[in-house]
Amino acid sequence: MQTFLVVLQVIVALFMILVVLLQPGNRGGSSAAFGGAGSDTAFGARGANTLLAKLTFGAALLFMVTNLALSLMSSGVSSVLDKVVN
To answer: In terms of pTM, does the model score above 0.70?
Structure first.
């Protein structure tokens, strides 16, 4: 199970890097640097921003869940409160 989570975490991390790099910058992406107004419209006028933002959020959420699961598996403690009580 731990090996599966490590592999999943690496895949999600690489996917998240790719999705973040595909997002346009604050000034409209690479087309604005060369004076083009709308040449970055592969997903439509606003489609790329919303789709890539949702994919980034999902990948980040999955990355955090796998991090939490791996840290709990490696420590052998099911809860932080178990150490406080004992």
So the answer is: no
In sequence order, the 6+-apart residues with CB closer than 8 A to the CB of 63 are 9, 12, 13, 16
- Other beta carbons less than 10 A from residue 85's beta carbon: 6
Query: Domains in the chain: how many in total?
Result: 1
Query: How far apart, in whole angstroms, are the C-alpha atoms of residue 33 and residue 56?
Result: 24
What are 54-82's pLDDT values in tens digits?
999 999 999 999 999 988 888 765 566 66
What's the gap between Cα 17 and its chain centre?
7
From the number of C-beta atoms within 10 Å of its C-beta (0-12, 13-18, 19+), residue 60 rates as middle
pLDDT tens digits, 1-44: 889 999 999 999 999 999 999 887 766 555 555 555 555 555 55
**Domain region containing 52:** 2-19+43-85
Residue 33 lies in a domain: no
